[in-house]
Amino acid sequence: MQGGLDGRSRNMRMTFVALTMVALWVPVMAQAQWKTPWYYEGKSGTEHWASLDPDYATCGNGKAQSPIDIRATQKAELPPLRFIDKSAPLKYLVNNGRTIRVDYHAPGSGDWLIVGDLRYQLTQFHFHRPSEEYVQGRPYDMALHLMYETSDGKVAGVTVFLKSGRANATLQKLWDHMPQVAGNAQEIPGIEINPAGLLPQDTAYYTYTGSLSAPPCTEDVTWYVLKTPMEISAEQIKAFARLYPHDVRPLQPLNGRVVKESE
Ligand code: ZN
């Protein structure tokens, strides 16, 4: 038979195109930053990350991966962590389908971490429940990961453990505007956030060399895990858990790495 599609096939084809567009468009909106989606559970879950995309191979064959259980440590004279933070409009609050994250777009975020002669700029912070890192075999209720980068590409992560106690006012500002569905970053007019409100006074820390704890699992990340936890309320933990009850990668082998502990 020659000629065009009959009415029924054309309709089916239109429906197919429309469905395909919806199917493609929704995930692209939600996952703009990863070309291959990954998750914590299921077919794209943690044990499958390395095979999802050749760019994620390090998740499987890396020898210095995160997170870890911090057990034996070596006390050392380490440089103090100096955090320089300022209050700034909340411009990039995102529910990315895996966690709640606040992005900082360089240049000019004005938030810094200075360690010895390294000067890192804050690029984003996000949350895990429970904590990804363990201490002596146990996780905390939640953890905050603040990610930093130097101008020449050195990456550092700071872990702040969060435990059930008094409510945290800075966190509450984020939670009040927490997007309930995954999507693009949102600007929240009239709301200012200072990351300092999420940091403990005492910044004594453990440090080790690890990786991004999510694909592409890039190594050579210097982690600073603060020993002093921050309190957040049980309600605040519950509010996050309603969206993301378990957004953690399993513990990774140390493979001879040494964890240092500031004195
Ligand atoms: Zn993280």
Protein described:
Helices cover 19% and strands 30% of the residues. It contains five helices and 17 strands. It has helices at residues 7-30, 49-52, 58-61, 169-176, 234-243; strands at 69-70, 74-76, 81-84, 88-89, 93-95, 100-103, 112-115, 118-128, 134-135, 138-139, 142-149, 155-164, 192-193, 205-211, 219-226, 230-232, 260-262. Strands 2, 3, 5, 6, 7, 8, 11, 12, 14, 15, 16 and 17 form a twelve-stranded mixed β-sheet that branches. The chain has a three-stranded mixed β-sheet with strand order 1-9-10, with no helix packed on it. The termini are far apart. Residues 1-7 and 15-31 have low confidence and may be disordered. Zinc ion binds next to strand 8. Zinc ion (ZN) binds next to strand 8.
Find the structural class using helix and strand composition.
alpha+beta
**SS field, number of helical segments:** 5
Mean pLDDT: 90
Q: What CATH architecture of the largest domain do you see? A: Roll
DSSP, total strands: 17
Instruction: State the CATH class of the largest domain.
Output: Alpha Beta
Please state roughly what percent of the residues sit in beta strands, choosing from under 5%, 5-15%, 15-25%, 25-35%, 35-45% or over 45%. Answer: 25-35%
Low-confidence stretches: 1-7, 15-31
Please write the string of helix (H) and strand (E) elements. HHHEEEEEEEEEEEEHEEEEHE
Outline the fold blueprint:
Blueprint: H1 7-30, H2 49-52, H3 58-61, E1 69-70, E2 74-76, E3 81-84, E4 88-89, E5 93-95, E6 100-103, E7 112-115, E8 118-128, E9 134-135, E10 138-139, E11 142-149, E12 155-164, H4 169-176, E13 192-193, E14 205-211, E15 219-226, E16 230-232, H5 234-243, E17 260-262
Zinc ion binds at residues 126, 128, 145, 213.
